[in-house]
Write a structure and sequence with these properties.
By secondary structure, the protein is of the alpha+beta class. It has 11 helices and 11 strands. Helix content is 38%, strand content 19%.
């Protein structure tokens, strides 16, 4: 009788559009719940599962020699679209500044003039996490310069200004971000701002691999995300300020990286996505929920060493 009752409850929930097992992967929530609240509920349940009941999914036994500390990890053969290693690839997580890759694609898709100047506004100041910025209110930068700083140095005011200066403002920009996600098949992703500071920006490793693959087709995104450092003349002063790439692997010169983006907020941990060529194989790497300051970099280097050891060749012919 008890199991019959559970079946009936599940049927009713399904009819209402509610996933009774939302904690296992991407939650399907009632449309009446605001997006930010949906993301919060997804985040809590998935993180609970990852940290208390680790469910590591590896593609094959050939990946057993690779031990990563990030809570979520995915390595995909870019040419074949096949996963080489996967760990919780369907977990829905906050993605922090990885969001800025979507921001960049939406800006470039709109074909807005890259040489047009945009002034930093009070609305661009981060009042959610209270992060700082060297871009002061009233300073004007070209859209291209803001795009470079947002992608290379993860500059939040630059990303906020790009969204605000979009036709229709920030709300229209966020709508365009979510439409782009749908077009890319990112069915378990949701965007609520252009910076990634809001933990309501959520996705899965699988969806982010799709996003990285799409972003790689944009010349400017490849160029800006792999620029090691860049100097900016601050308007209204004689000062020149140096910005560095937020990914130390780009600056090290030991990697062949075609695209890169880092992210961090407390809810997401430290995140990293990259397109790189390792052992002559182009791959997409997604690392989420890394909690040590150097964990994501350490995991990336472990992946590089694992691939250079010939592990993926053994996997192919095993």
């Amino acid at each position: 009788m008890g199991s019959l009752r559970r079946v009936l409850v599940c049927c009713v929930l399904a009819a209402l559009g509610v996933n009774a097992y939302a904690g296992e992967s991407a939650a399907i929530l009632p449309s009446s719940i605001p997006v930010a609240h949906q993301a919060k509920r997804i985040h809590i349940k998935v993180r609970h599962k990852i940290h208390r009941e680790p469910a590591v999914k590896r593609v094959s036994s050939a990946a057993d020699g690779l031990h990563l500390r990030s809570g979520v990890a995915l390595v995909v053969d870019q040419d074949l679209g096949q996963p080489l290693y996967a760990k919780n690839p369907e977990a829905v997580m906050p993605i922090a500044s990885i969001t800025k890759l979507m921001t960049a694609m939406v800006v470039l898709d709109a074909k807005l003039p890259l040489d047009e100047t945009v002034a930093i506004d009070a609305a661009d100041v981060d009042t959610l996490k209270n992060t700082g910025s060297r871009l002061r209110i009233g300073m004007e930068f070209t859209r291209a310069e803001l795009l470079r700083l947002a992608l290379m140095s993860s500059e939040n005011r630059a990303a906020a200004a790009l969204g605000r200066a979009y036709p229709g403002g920030a709300p229209a920009f966020v709508a365009a971000m979510n439409l782009k996600a749908i077009q890319l098949g990112m069915s378990n992703s949701r965007f609520v701002d252009s910076t990634g500071l809001n933990s309501g920006n959520v996705s899965t490793a699988q969806d982010l691999a799709r996003m990285v693959r799409a972003a790689y087709d944009y010349d400017l995104i490849r160029d800006f995300t792999t620029t090691p450092a860049h100097e900016v003349d601050l308007p209204g002063s004689r000062r020149t300020v140096a910005f560095r790439n937020s990914n130390s692997l780009v600056r090290s010169g030991a990697w062949d990286i075609g695209l890169s983006k880092t992210g961090f907020i407390s809810e997401a941990g430290r995140c990293l996505v990259m397109q790189a060529t390792i052992a002559s194989k182009p791959v997409i790497i997604v690392l989420l929920d890394s909690w040590g300051r150097l964990t994501r970099v350490g995991d990336a280097n472990r992946i590089k060493k694992w691939m250079e050891s010939g592990a993926t060749l053994r996997q192919r012919f095993s």
